[in-house]
Amino acid sequence: MNTIELFKFMIGSKSQTPDDGGLLDFIQSYLGDFEAIRVDVEGVKNLFLYKKFSQGDHLCFAGHVDVVPAGDGWDSDPYIAIERGGYIYGRGAQDMKSGVATFVQAIKDTKHFNGTLSILLTSDEEGEGTYGTIEVLNYLSEKNMLPDFAVVAEPTCERAFGDAIKVGRRGSINGYITLRGKQGHAAYPEKSINPINLIAPRLANMAGVDIDNGDEFFSPSKFVITDIRAGMEVTNVTPNELKIMFNVRNTTLTSQKEVREFVEKNLEGLDYDLRLTQGSYPFKTDTKTKLVKNLDASIEKISGIKPKHSTAGGTSDARHMAPLGIGVVEFGVINDTIHAINERTTIDEVEKLYEVFKHLIDTWE
To answer: Which pLDDT value is given to residue 128?
Structure first.
């Protein structure tokens, strides 16, 4: 197979989270000269392949083979790769079977490397991720086999191939507020305590407000309200309590402590409960590291574009790697149709992504 053939084959495997569609067994066989470690947990399939070519760094390419549900309204079968007008259509075309296909093929075509090459794949990135990449990393940590560097081939480019790599990601703090009042008759508001009235004048100082100012790499941590609900869906009873859900995509400048202080300041004097959870923590890889400099050079060589260093967007499995001391970045195709109906990417991008990864491997010292 060449890169495009492998890419089309992967799209044809229906691998909706946590199903791998048989792809991990196939890839293990496809790279048959690599040592294989399977870490399958609670129905989630995880694969780690590695090969020591010589003394030197351990460079890992990581990703996921699972995809989100296709949904309705596609112009073609989402699990058959359709080539049309220079594009390849199918679920996972951008997120992220293009990335997986290109690094698998680049590694298969590699005969020499200054160190150890490995691949880490999971079938549970689009879901909770509880039994995915993090389980493999825990196993590798116990065996003293963690990579020195990792490239997660998520789609990162914005308008042109090569224009952006992710050198970090914001964290994600979720918040749940329960504001208590006193239920009553709408005709006698003076006999009740309406929590809607209590929160209304304070929302302007909370909704969409920046908790910090950000920095060179991170946009500000913004307080984003995602849900407000109260009452019994009737017009003559005021509610007893009101619930607010919010999310803060936090920078390294803001933690749960600052979020809690922000809420306490704005809800001072009210009767409420606050619960915070954190799905991921912010991180940034030093842009002066060998990995970033080498990947920058490979991207510029193949695309003619010097990529910007970004931390925008959601989360990825890179969030599990950085806390373990792995220098990690993300790079892949343009991300304008991820999770969308008629998801697609260009043939040119896929071929160039293969060339970037092959150049990175071949020039590693």
So the answer is: 85
Tally of CB atoms within 10 A around 187: 8
Q: Domain range for residue 321?
A: 3-169+282-362
Q: What's the whole-model pTM score?
A: 0.87
**What is the domain count for the chain?**
2
What's the confidence (pLDDT) of residue 313? 83
Give pairs for 320-324: CB < 8 Å, separation 24+. 320/133, 320/134, 320/137, 321/62, 321/133, 321/137, 321/147, 321/150, 321/152, 322/168, 322/283, 322/285, 323/281, 323/283, 324/137, 324/141, 324/146
pLDDT given for residue 315 in this prediction: 82
Domain boundary among 253, 280, 307: 280
Catalytic site positions: 66, 125
Residue 126 has a pLDDT of 95
> What stretches in the chain show pLDDT beneath 50?
none
Q: What is the per-residue pLDDT for 309?
A: 96
Contacts of 274 (CB under 8 A, 6+ apart): 175, 176, 177, 260, 263, 264
pLDDT of residue 280: 86
